[in-house]
Design goal:
The protein is of the alpha/beta class. 50% of the residues lie in helices and 11% in strands. It has four domains: 45 residues, no CATH class; 161 residues, Substrate Binding Domain Of Dnak, Chain:A, Domain 2 (Up-down Bundle), CATH 1.20.1270.30; 150 residues, Rossmann fold; 215 residues, 3-Layer(aba) Sandwich (Rossmann fold), CATH 3.40.50.
Length: 629
Amino acid sequence: MCDPKTMRMEAEKRSLDRTDQEMNLVTIQDGIETAWDRLSSQQPQCGFGQLGVCCNNCAMGPCRIDPFGEKAKRGVCGADVDTIVARNLLDDLCVGASAHSDHGREVVEVMRETARGQAEGYRITDGKKLQRLAAEYGIPVSGRSNEAIAEDLANGMLEEYGCIKNHLQLSDRAPEPTRAIWEKTGIVPRGIDREIVEAMHRIHMGVDADYVNILLHAMRTALGDGWGGSMIATECSDILFGTPKPLSSEVNLGTLSTDKVNVVLHGHNPLLSEMIVAAAEDPGMKQYAEKKGAKGINLVGMCCTGNELLMRSGVPIAGNVLDQELAIATGAVEAMIVDYQCIYPSIPATAACYHTRVITTSRKAKIPGAEYMEFHPKTALATAKEIIKRAIDAYPDRDPNRVRIPGKPMKLMAGFSEEAICSALGGTYKPLIDAIVAGSIRGAVGVVGCNNPKIRHDYGHVTLAQELIKRNILVVETGCAAIACGKAGLLLPEAADQAGEGLKGVCNLLGIPPVLHMGSCVDNSRILVMAAKIANELGVGIGDLPIGGAAPEWYSQKAISIGTYFVASGVYTVLGIPPKIFGSQNVLTLLADGVKGITNSSFAVEPDPVKAADLLEAEIERKRTALKI
Ligand code: SF4
Ligand code: MSK
């Protein structure tokens, strides 16, 4: 590809955002390999894998079912295609649920160490939330210090992982009709780890062969994530670092600085990145940066660690998951600090083309070619300072002739925690419910999830959000979806001009955007809490509400877990990328249709975001009709 016009067309085909297009062009021109190139080199991808019909669970295999011919209809053990497809799906879901929940566990552990005075630099920031949570867990608060309460709460939450009482405390937040469905169906989550371990047991050869039974357990495992591990991650992060409130900031690759030390914080967990923010504020660090010739330190986020920092501290965010290589290719990044999840193993190779240091920090997530600096809560601040120092040390190696920072940042508004939304409405959901009943707002959709190079970068998120707001449907977002819409200007109050008249009126009245940024991937739990509170006010289940969910560009197993706990909680969910289940008609029918009879919700697959909006709108109208509104 050496013709400049062809290269530009390819760059524009890859990404929607102008700054991303510019950097795609640079990587194409300079021959810097990215996820788009690797996707291309993987073509054609395995058709059996895409259908979910191959099984590598035991040493009699690998086996694969021929979905079209008559010959191989069962694996060596006798598993049929329904069993294999359902088991594979549960396997993927477990990976996603584990990722969220293990992240949650680390936050609770740090909360406990903070309470015991053993975590350097951390403190209880939201005492009110701590007390509210303690009340839910039946922990006495009167006359006790925040630290004493936090230690008891942390112990209560850690117990949820193994859970000997067979009931997750936070699942009581779901409305009674929703919980009744879970009880009746036998999918009440009993313990966060327990459901995952049982799932692993079930997919062993010769255990669960009934696809319906396997998929019901998938729902139970996912509920343990949404109403358990993820919710714990969100709540404890709020207690430690503060519950987000609306704030302004900036987004896209233009947030990188030409004359400061750029540090990109990438991954998911706020534990380390919050300490990096604190360390970067140290005047000594700034002086050190100046000594090395820089004008200061510029911290920017990426992916969900970025979302955590953006939501609470307004730290600008450079981009979403497909931006990680593009950010390095600006030639302006001194260090990319990562914790875990969604970090391409290739980034040290990209960084090697520049002066960029990739620093891994978690024992769980080492990457060959990266520098490793182990992070411990006991020494968090000192480690954070050392990391910043390493970034500053890289600054003199920056080659100014290779720095290409594309365009200016886009402004955005973020920080819409559930509490912040409720407070923007005047402390109650009544105004929102009234607007929904009156029809000025038809309903709400949670647009969540990743980027996937199979879909033009950000196109699915942005187009779907634009289509929905046009139809007077409020959009709430998390994860890379929110970052995509931020880049497109949809997280600004002015974006209400693109909304239908009803939604526009409500947004203008409240001074809020029509697309609300609710946080990181684990913060999908905020969407569950908001739905539960609205359902409780109406005296119905979540499955009765005129709401929906969508993951237009998902790639991660975490998105499978999120989509499944949405559906199991009653939220109709449209996926833009087909999950690997199309090899089994029975599994497909159950998830797209059969499950409706249980939770009044289901999955749909629709890669075209305009058609996805049609599906979501139709579902919202179906629910409105049933509610007689
Ligand atoms: Fe093959 Fe059955 Fe083993 Fe899977 S579990 S690899 S289908 S023999
Ligand atoms: S970071 S899980 S790519 S949303 Fe949460 Fe983005 Fe998906 Fe990772």
